[in-house]
Amino acid sequence: MNYVSTRGGIAPVSLEVAIAAGLAPDGGLYVPERIPVVDMTHPKATLAQTAEQVLSPYFAGSGLREHLSQLCTTAFDFPAPLRALNAPDDYLLELFHGPTAAFKDYAARFLAETLSRLREPSQPTTTVLVATSGDTGAAVAAAFHRRPGFRVLVLYPDGRVSPRQAHVLGSFSNNVQAMRVDGSFDDCQRLVKQALVDASLREKVTLTSANSISLGRLLPQIAYYAHAALDFHARHGMPLNFIVPTGNLGNALACWLARSMGLPVGEIVLACNANDTLPRYLDGEDYAPRATEATLANAMDVGAPSNFERLRWWHPDDAELRSGLRALRVDDAAIRDTIANAPRRHGVVPCPHTAVGLRVLERLRAAGDTGAWAVVATAHPAKFESVVEPLVGHAVEPPAALTAALAHPAHAQPLAADYAALRDHLLRGAGA
Ligand SMILES: *Cc1c(COP(=O)(O)O)cnc(C)c1O
Fold this sequence. Notes:
By secondary structure, the chain is an alpha/beta fold. Helices cover 42% and strands 16% of the residues. Helix 2 (47-59) packs across helix 3 (68-75), helix 2 (47-59) packs across helix 10 and helix 4 packs parallel to helix 5.
């Protein structure tokens, strides 16, 4: 399988080149030349084995193919259970059982393993630069922690992530360094982008980014949709519909890919917060990205979802694209109401992002929908305790991995939202 750019400005490249580069040289996103169809009627025994089966066509002809089994075993070594909620046909696909309690752990671990395999032993240390509003930075830091040949620099907006998120980000020592930036998430992203296009810096420091548009993060996310949908189909003889809490559209695009590959995925509904670029477009308005608005579901605060460019590439025709997807907008008041009532209504305590998905399910049921729906639970509620605990009226116990990270001392270095300061820091660490 070869990979091309959504902007059409490059010759097809191998999977290795696409994963190592992140962004295509013409500024586009890498996409597979065609979407492979898999012939599967049952899941494999484990999530890792299903992952290997559905990802193998993307690895066909690549030097990475011989490592795929090992990549999947390492990245998919924690479960993604489909939990039944209170009402019949309501389910929760729990993707938060990894080391940093969010779904991004799967893809970050897969990408880290892949980049390790692609690395020559003689190469200088690679610095992984990440801007984060919380979850991405932690997942990437955990995935590269103590990994030979890599160091990680995480930039987060000081005072704008939850106290627990900040603690986790600062809890890694060794080859991971957290920088608390005196600015917004957009400032962090701008600093990272500036470093990545700074040619004279890149002559001295080997840099890569691990952001969500990387093909090495998009593809592995297909695995848990495939496993859940195949398992459901084998038991109930029908496809499973999904509600996906959406920000940058990476996770939902993987669900869409799973369906396009012939797996038994039914309808897909994107659950968005007040950042409603996608709901407005899918309802018939022109595609018009807007400035990002801060909400309770902060990991979904995206006004211009990057992966839309991939979806557009596969469906240049608006009507065709709109016929395969729906999206609904959920504001902060509705998020609060859903969290407060979820223990009684659904039998679970959700994180604010998962609550956006549950709210969409509540609306579909109120409109008379009787299908089988799985809401994707993207993070553990204990990570967002300052929002969740006052609404449900009791403490939420963190999972073991989070408790361990919170027990470590945390340290973050202050950084001005100024590119010269970051550049200086990178150059001083270049020999490390
Ligand atoms: C990143 C994130 C999302 C949004 O996922 P996208 O792939 O960007 O659409 C939703 N919920 C949580 C908890 C996240 O960390």
